[in-house]
Please model this.
Amino acid sequence: MTDFTVSRYGTDSGGRAIWMTAYMHDWLQGVYTDLGFAPTIVQGAFMTRNGGGASASAGYHDRGGCIDFRIWDLSATQQDKLIRVLREHGAAAWRRDQRHGGMDPHCHIVLGTDSPLAAGAAAQWRQYRLGFDGLASNGPDYEWRPSPLVLTPPVEADVTPEQQAAAVVGRMVRRDQSGLGCGVAAPRRGCRMKRADELSILPSVGMIALGVALLLLARALRAGA
Model:
């Protein structure tokens, strides 16, 4: 089952929390693998959790599916590869700048299969599918387009059931840690850090037992296949 649980994954270039679904986070790992590098995130999804996103984003980042990457530190070749790989993995992706949208240079993406999407992001996804640029001017798409258009992320055929089960357990651990009162890496101001005997970065015994059960089930399914 697709996991749309929202969690924090580090901080963006401005020091704000990066929020996204487990689904989008796992999808990004595949993108980074094919890219060979991980571009800097300047704005994540669910920006309402940070008090709101950039004014130029018009609320598109208020919910899921949208991320902005920094591109001024990438070569033209890297930028082209970024657009190509993102689109090959099923996302809408455009370079934005003064010519395209009157914005500071960045790469804006919409992963249409993520959920939930803000109304503006959903409209951009529809525009992308129809061959437009996702801007209010409804201009033609100015980036490279796959043929046929990729609208769903590719399936990783080499992922074993054991790896799938391990991924589920990993998401459970992240979810368990994200529920702690204070962030371990960057505690919020005024937040009381827990004592060592209160804070454990290891999952609970129940989670370990569930993880073992999932792995055993995966191996049993492989044996019976």
Summary: The beta strands are 6-11, 17-21, 41-43, 66-70, 92-96, 106-110. Residues 6-130 form a domain with the Muramoyl-pentapeptide Carboxypeptidase; domain 2 fold (CATH 3.30.1380).
